[in-house]
Amino acid sequence: MPASEVPDAALVASARDGDSAALTALIARYSPKIMRFGMKMCRDEEDAREVMQDTWLAAARGVRDFRGQSSLSTWLYSIARSFCIKRRRRTVGEPEHLEALDELSEDRSPGLVAQQRPDDAAAAREIELALERAILALEPSYREVLLLRDVEGLSAAEVAEVVGVSVDAVKSRLHRARAAVRARLAPLLSDEPRALPEATCPDVIELLSRHVEDDVSPALCREMEAHVASCARCAARCDSLRKVLSLCEVSPLPRVAPEVEAQIRAEVQRVLNEPRGVVR
């Protein structure tokens, strides 16, 4: 079976027993995702790289105690988040510019840009960077839930486990984060009328966000669909939120340099080979 198809649990067990191929597969599978999460949380590529490396070392030290009660991705994101928070506490303010995000090239951004015709590449890049800026503009508590749920694909329950709050709190933050990102991107994504919704219009953005989380009853869903079918303004707003969610799903993974992966493998292997009880 190709390494890409081996379940996480089997790879973890093999890596714990000294299988270097399993360790390589795990690091290749999750390093770009951890790096992407770190870049968007830390707003700095170098910090994100260090978060990724620290995450793997911490995971290696705790892997003997990892029993699979949580998914591997939930466990790794929990560790990465803790390192992001530590870096944020040590830093006075966050950089106002996008370090590496403004320098995305096609080989590092296989998402929208690579799928567009050449004459559409500039527009796709503009949307991609606008999404990055909109996410980075969120407060960290809102940013992290949107990243974990809509970019990294964790369930709301898994996000709650990573963040350490209730599922209801996750969903509340998620609805606000989605609305804020959509508002920033709307001018690029649709021909949405500039006028505000009528007083009789429901909050279709929150309703649609709740619908994505299966929190809207069938009756309310039918009411919303009927209203959207008759209201061009609300239809455009819903369409722009759907596009934002689709863009989040295809957010490009950064390229982790082979030499960085090699260094991580060597350090993780060293930690795994240490006898129990060794503390560094």
Can I get a quick summary?
With 280 residues, the chain is an all-alpha fold. Helices cover 67% and strands 0% of the residues.
What this model shows, in words?
The chain has helices at residues 8-16, 20-42, 45-62, 72-90, 112-115, 121-136, 140-151, 156-163, 167-189, 204-212, 218-230, 232-249, 258-273. With 280 residues, the chain is an all-alpha fold. The two termini are 36 Å apart. Mean pLDDT is 85; it is low at 94-118.
Topology overview:
Blueprint: H1 8-16, H2 20-42, H3 45-62, H4 72-90, H5 112-115, H6 121-136, H7 140-151, H8 156-163, H9 167-189, H10 204-212, H11 218-230, H12 232-249, H13 258-273
Helix pairs in contact: 1-2, 2-3, 2-4, 2-13, 3-4, 3-13, 4-8, 6-9, 7-8, 7-9, 8-9, 9-10, 9-12, 10-12, 11-12
Major sheet description: none
Low-confidence stretches: 94-118
Percent of residues in helical segments?
55-70%
Radius of gyration: 21 Å
Which class best fits the helix and strand makeup? Answer: mainly alpha
**Hey, roughly how much beta strand do the residues contain?**
under 5%
Order of helices and strands: HHHHHHHHHHHHH
Count the beta strands.
0
Number of helices: 13
Instruction: Provide mean pLDDT, rounded.
Output: 85
- What oligomeric assembly is this protein in? single chain
Please give a handful of descriptors for the protein shown.
280 residues, mainly alpha, 13 helices, 67% helix, 0% strand, elongated
